[in-house]
Structures are given as C-alpha cells and as structure tokens.
C-alpha cells in the first residue's frame, strides 16, 4: 500500500467543537462515525481494541491531546479521526491529563507497513510545533483542519 496522509486522514472524520466530556463518550462518538463512513465494519469490536490498548497505558500525550489507537480485523482501511471538544476533560485517572483534542487512529490487523506507527510518529513530531498545535486549536472549519493534518504527508 502506498502510504500517505491523504490515504488515512479523512475530511469526513474531522469533528470540531463537540460537547463531549469523557474518554468513553469521545471514543463512542469517533468509533460510531468510523463505522458510518465505512472505515470499520463493527463499532464494538474496534472500540474494545482501543479500550484494551488504553488500559495498558494512557494515550494522552500532553498539550491537551490524546492519540487512542487500535489494530483490528474490522478496520477496512487505515484512518485518522480528529475530534476537538468545546471543553477540556480528564482523559485518564492514571495521569490526570486534561484533553480537548483526540486523534483516533485505526489500522487493519494485517498492517505490513506499520502505517499507524508512521502516522503516529509524524503526527507527534508536528504536535511538538507550537504553531501546528495553535492552528489545531483555533481553525474553525474541517477543510482547514484537513489541510493542516494532510501536511504531515510530506514526511511519511
């Protein structure tokens, strides 16, 4: 598979300014949307994979961002979903991290190219950039956020 951000970052998986205030609510929302757009075919199975991974160690990465992810046979194609909430909320009791930006990353079980690791790595590098984070926080439409997130493509 030719990996690029354009293959995995989807405009129909970007959600801005939603009134969501818990990890469970955020993951339910994002996995439901992932099933609706057809990148996964079973919400509950994928949600359980993400929660199993989350139980190992919190995916909150600082800067008010969490990057939950899962690998499963129900993932039809690799994807990144982005949710920005209206309020900060506690992502994990383990580390008391407050978040309002969540990237849900899904990859097929047969993931020969380690797509999710490449995407997580490049996304993480960009998230260290103050300007990138500020734009994620402040841009007000999906097209602008999609364009910003797609800019990681050049490094994959």
Describe this structure in words.
- The chain has 6 helices and 6 strands, in the order H-E-H-H-E-E-E-E-E-H-H-H.
- Strands 1, 2, 3, 4, 5 and 6 form a 6-stranded mixed β-sheet that branches.
- The protein is α/β, with parallel strands linked by helices and 156 residues long.
- The radius of gyration is 14 Å and the shape is globular.
- The protein has one domain (9-154): Mannitol-specific EII, Chain A.
- InterPro entries: PTrfase/Anion_transptr, PTS_EIIA_type-2_dom, PTS_IIA_fruc, PTS_SugarTrans_NitroReg.
- GO terms for molecular function: protein-N(PI)-phosphohistidine-sugar phosphotransferase activity.
- One of its GO terms (cellular component) is membrane.
